[in-house]
Amino acid sequence: MGNEGVKSSRRKFLKSAATASGAILGYSLLKSSQYLVYAAEPEDPNLPWYGIVIDVEKCIGCGACAKACKNENDVPVEPFFFRTWVEQYTVKNDGSVEIQSPNGGIDGFTQTVPDEEIFKSFFVPKMCNHCAKSPCVQVCPVGATYDSPEGIVLVDEKYCIGCRYCVQACPYGCRFIHPVKKVASKCTLCYHRIKKGLAPACMETCPTGARMYGNLRDKNSEIVKFLKEHTTQVLRPNLNTGAKLYYNALSSEVR
Amino acid sequence: MESSYPHLYEILSHIQGYIFPNEIDLQWGILIVVYPFITGLVAGAFILASLERVFKDKVLKPTYQIALLTALSFLLVATMPLISHLAQPQRAYEIMITPHSSSAMAIFGFVYLWYLMVVLLLEIWFDYRHSMVVWAEEKKGIMKWVYRILTLGLNDISPRTVSWDRKLGYIITVVGIPSAFILHGYVGFIFGSIKANPWWSTPLMPIIFLFSAMVSGIAMVMLIYMAVSYIRTRTLDVNVLDAIGKYLFFVLILDFTIEGLDQIHRIYVAEESFETIKLLVEGKLYLTLFISQGLIGTLIPLGVLAFLQFYKGKIKLRKTLYFITGIMVLIGVYSMRWNVVIGGQLFSKSFSGFTSFKVGLIGIDGTLMAIFWLLLPFGILTFLLWLLPPWKMVPEVEE
Q1: Which candidate among A113, A144, B93, B304 keeps its CA 20 to 30 Å from the CA of B261?
Q2: Measured distance CA(B208)–CA(A196) in Å, rounded
Q3: CB pairs < 8 Å spanning A and B
Q4: What is the ipTM of this complex?
Q5: Are B42 and B34 contacting, i.e. CB atoms less than 8 angstroms apart?
């Protein structure tokens, strides 16, 4: 091979190298732009994909769920830390709304509005919505909060740096910083229990069966049947969080 | 039981309306107010320095190195309030090692390092290399070695090499301007991208942060220039102040316009959260938003700066006015950070009530700590001005 041959083969090599690296760069840029949009998708078809239903009509505001959750999940008893709580809504005749949740509903409720002023009143249990497009998972800077393959949003307590960005990002107020562990904490749908086939503590204890969870993929499951037969709604649908907590008989005052 | 969280029990009695039970405690306190304030000073100071360099505004020359060293001093401290505010500060490095690609916050470490290593340090080094070589020869003892180490052993000060220093420095400045924009626009994005929070969630947030950053940085460099002249008992050049004042005036107009646009938009579209936010700004934020940020930090400085564009009379009066305006503008920008960070956490995401915030004096996220982080950069700057005095630099030879 003469000098010209070396030059041309070198040029060829440089050309193809440049093309290849350009393609890789372009692809990775395209790919990384997808990373900006966060969404968990069911991966393993053999695993369940969990959703939750809360039937507002069934809740009697006893607060047993919130209490059971604190016992089960080592949540501090002080009234500032809750993985689940119950709100009492009272819509008055003049259209104004009063909301309360003293100690998360654990000690029960007292109606402070006189009967004749009440238009309607109801209880709304709250918990993590286990969103498929969770803002909290999206913003975690280290990936300490993540989706389980079953679509449950969990926190790795050994990994969380405690920046509190996820607490800011949750539109439902479902997260808090555990005052003892100093990491983000939230409802796990009692992952440790459901893995063993047991119901989450709040659902186990609910005397009226106002809460249920189940496999959204299984078209014969109780939850799918319920969703088929009832008109349900998620909270703050405008935020497109992909919430998988469906409320039956939800009133428009609830946020 | 009450002894465990006395401050939370105290807040409990100050809640208005209904808030979600987990919302009682503010997640981000005064340190997170200080953080964007400091980062803003960095970006603003750098942009002022760049004006001199890229746009060849010769009048600003005496402030050029001061602005760069100010930017560096504040940048070195910028991460400290963030890290000390973490619940697990010992795990802070995770953000660099395993950044989560979809998180706005995860990129901070990289933006920060880029800005520190590639932009500021390199630019300052190219700027000072010639002088440091000369100083290394002049000085004796330890200082000789300090300067030798700082030159990284590159002692060639032939006119050709020195002119290359200048060219490379220029390129870095050009790269640095968008970097400064990214650094602080990005801080705005951290807040602006939180869709759960209507007080933060606006695409204008990065732009608002950027312009307020420029306002604060320019004002800070102006004040430091005045202080340095005073300490060195040199006559303060009022032409320099006029030049800085002109930039401050224009940037402040832009800043005011964009923030005004944001507010008008909010009022006009009056979304779901409007009633709550209206109560917030008319109540808990009244003093810091209307008085501190609006009146003291924006309207009065705008009036004074407008007056100074025309008034070229008594020099002493002009200097005094610039000094007071600079301080007022800084108060305004600090209040703006407060209104964003604290204001955004005072209302419940249920839009039905408000929590309360009382900043403590002591503790890692108390006022004293915040003051410490705000003062530390001045200590660093004093040291840097002693180590790298701009007034002792080898004068540039005009080509």
Answers
A1: B304
A2: 51
A3: 145
A4: 0.93
A5: no
Which one-letter amino acid corresponds to residue A70? K
Please tell me the distance from the alpha carbon of residue B29 to that of residue B87, in angstroms, as a whole number: 12
Facing residue for B103 by CB, picked from A77, A138, A170: A138
Domain ranges of chain A: 1-36, 50-133+170-248
Burial class (CB in 10 A: 0-12, 13-18, 19+), A186: buried
- Check CB contact of A255 with chain B, cutoff 8 Å: yes
Nearest to A246 by CA among A255, A254, A238, A231: A231
Determine the Cα–Cα distance for residues A14 and A17; give it in Å rounded to an integer: 5
Q: Name the phi and psi angles at A177, rounded to 5.
A: -95, 120
Evaluate whether A183 touches A160 at the Cβ level (below 8 Å): yes
Q: How far is A201 from chain B (nearest CA, A)?
A: 20
Distance in angstroms (rounded) separating the CA atoms of residues B268 and B113:
40
CA distance B320 to B313: 13
Euclidean distance between CA atoms B308 and B223, whole angstroms: 16
Q: Tell if the CB–CB gap between B27 and A167 is shorter than 8 Å.
A: yes
Query: Is the Cβ–Cβ distance between A20 and A88 less than 8 Å?
Result: no
Q: What is chain A's alpha carbon radius of gyration, rounded to the nearest angstrom? A: 24
Alpha-helical regions (H) of chain B: 6-12, 30-54, 61-85, 94-97, 108-113, 122-138, 141-150, 159-192, 205-231, 238-269, 274-282, 300-310, 315-341, 343-346, 367-387
pLDDT tens for chain B, 399 residues: list them: 456 788 899 999 999 999 999 999 999 999 999 999 999 999 999 999 998 888 888 899 999 999 999 999 999 999 999 999 999 999 999 999 999 989 999 988 888 889 888 899 999 999 999 999 999 999 999 999 999 999 999 999 999 999 999 999 999 999 998 888 888 888 999 999 999 999 999 999 999 999 999 999 999 999 999 999 999 999 899 999 999 999 999 999 999 999 999 999 999 999 999 999 999 999 999 999 999 999 999 999 999 999 999 999 999 999 999 999 999 999 999 999 999 999 999 999 999 999 999 888 888 888 999 999 999 999 999 999 999 999 999 987 654
Give Dmax (Cα) for chain A.
103
Nearest CA in chain B to A139: B103
Q: Is A15 helix (H, G, I), strand (E, B) or coil?
A: helix
Q: In chain B, which residues have their Cβ closer than 8 Å to the Cβ of A169?
A: 194, 196
**Pairing mode of beta strands A245-248, A50-55:** parallel
Q: In terms of CATH architecture, what is A50-133+170-248?
A: 2-Layer Sandwich (3.30)
Per CATH, the architecture of B16-392 is what? Answer: Up-down Bundle (1.20)
- Chain B contact for A4 (CB, 8 A cutoff): no
pTM of the model: 0.91
Task: Decide: helix, strand or coil at residue B186.
Answer: helix
Which amino acid belongs to residue B160?
R
- Distant-in-sequence contacts of B165-170, Cβ < 8 A, 24+ apart: B165/B126, B165/B127, B165/B129, B165/B130, B166/B126, B166/B396, B168/B126, B169/B53, B169/B123, B169/B126, B169/B127, B170/B53, B170/B54
Domain boundaries, chain B: 16-392
Chain B residues closer than 8 Å to A161 by CB: 86-89, 91-92, 94-95
B348: its two tokens? 């419940």
Instruction: Say if the Cβ atoms of B1 and A78 lie within 8 Å.
Output: yes
Say if A177 is an interface residue toward chain B (CB within 8 Å): yes
Burial of residue A203 (CB within 10 Å: 0-12, 13-18, 19+) is buried
